[in-house]
Amino acid sequence: MNLHSRNAPSQTTAVTAELCQWIVGLKGSDIPAEVRREGLRTFVNWVGCAVGGARHETVDRALAAVLPFSGPASSTVLGRGERLDALHAALINGISSHVLDYDDTHLKTIIHPAGPVASALVALSEHRTIRGYDLLTALIIGVEVECRIGNAVYPAHYDRGWHITGTTGVFGAAVAVGKILGLDERQMAWAIGLAATQSAGLREMFGTMTKSFHPGRAAQNGMFAALLAEAGYDSSLRALEAPRGFANVMSDKQDYAEILDDLGTRWEAALNSYKPFACGIVIHPTIDGCLQIGEEIGDRVHEIEKVELTTHPLVLELTGKRGPKTGLEGKFSVYHSAASALLRGDGAPTAFTDEVVNLPEIVALRDRVVAVADANCHEASVDIKVTFSDGSTLKKHVERAIGSRERPLSDEELDRKFRVQSALVIGEARTEALLQTSWRLESLAESCEVARASAVR
Q1: Are residues 342 and 324 in the same domain?
Q2: In a domain, 19, yes or no
Q3: What are the phi and psi torsion angles at 208 (to 5°)?
Q4: Could you report the per-residue pLDDT of 386-396, keeping only the tens digit for each?
Q5: What is the pLDDT of residues 284-302, one digit of tens each?
Q6: Averaged pLDDT, 163-185
Q7: On the chain, which terminus has fewer CB atoms closer than 10 Å, C or N?
């Protein structure tokens, strides 16, 4: 179908309904093997990130706030010993999976799709029995829906200041949980409507604890939307396309063809990518290039007089924090990231702690980094020029960073990333068992084995 001619609100009447028809009718066997494989990679990466972030101060504070109000303790907080009711577990695991800014990215929209969807599904898996095969099917559908909705409103929606992971992630969580619950088409439309009215997240929060709250709340709200719909709680049946619905209220762009065209043949879920560095994705070319330079120059890093970066304007808009004071702020500082990569050879979570951000030698080198915006530079590229104290220079151009669609992480690299961050939280032996269980998701009779394998007892 082609809906480009039906983008005006008065002409567009069936977007939500047609999307729900596809969601409800889709079987796991309808999803191509290569898409299911990418969905499994998405899941494994998410588990590693959720465990990796489990001991972050942000998670500690969120747990302290919600524990007194949690209902029956059915669901695991990954990487920890606490158990919460499913709704609160979805919230906390969503926060944990995103707090390190190390999670997956749909590069066309900068959505981090797994956090809201997987956090809801895994929390539900300990409340209701879900086969691993069915959980993976629901995960892929949720990721597909949130990314298609994102495509329909990006970049105008993002440019307004909405954090698109939170605003579209709630739809992904709602339809994924709704698929597990067996909602019919009308109930699925209610779930989407209930998700739409809870869609939220502001880019102003980048560099604070609240950024990771967005995917956590999207997971919780999306699950709640599906549960309400299951109970017969109704909503508008045109939440996406109505004149006062999601797309028209929250964006200057409404391309409904991006939601409905080629459903089942064009898979956005197959385009997911995985971060090798624990920070804003637009910094990755800079870190990649600086790591390469650091390896080339060795001890000459101490002779650097100036580092000049030529980047796309979006890089400075998103990550232009000149003097970060906290690890979370450092994730949105291209200056800190360049200095850390050059001086420490580090772009992992260990590069973005409060301590490292304030190290005198990092601050000194960071102050010698200059970034210039050039609209002709692709947002996924960077030009780096290093000038040494003797006047000599070294230049590096990065066309696409490692972790991009052009240079994707292999399964082995995903495993390495998983092990490094998870072992710091639950130890090497438990990490290895959790990793293998995560890769076996499709064959698990009870997908809750994954969450329980991560628990610290």
Answers
A1: yes
A2: yes
A3: -125, 170
A4: 999 999 999 99
A5: 999 999 999 999 999 999 9
A6: 98
A7: C
